From TrEMBL:
This is LysR family transcriptional regulator. Gene3D superfamilies: Winged helix-like DNA-binding domain superfamily/Winged helix DNA-binding domain (1.10.10.10). It comes from Mesorhizobium kowhaii. Coiled coil: none annotated. Residues 6-63 form the HTH lysR-type domain. InterPro entries: LysR-type_TF (IPR050389), LysR_HTH_N (IPR000847), WH-like_DNA-bd_sf (IPR036388), WH_DNA-bd_sf (IPR036390). Keywords: DNA-binding, Nodulation, Repressor, Transcription, Transcription regulation. Belongs to the LysR transcriptional regulatory family.
Amino acid sequence: MRFKGLDLNLLVVLDALLAERNLTAAARRINLSQPAMSSAVARLRDFFGDELFSMSGRERILTS
């Protein structure tokens, strides 16, 4: 997999989501608005061509 063109700030978003498992809490953790966080997650999904997370109640779980 090539990472050319990947905005490294998106890795901060991914790390926060993995730690918090909740979009709003992850956004708060890295001082982003919830809409900006949603946009960043959409960009991650597009880059990797995968949903990345599934919902389990209010938590986001990393897909396999």
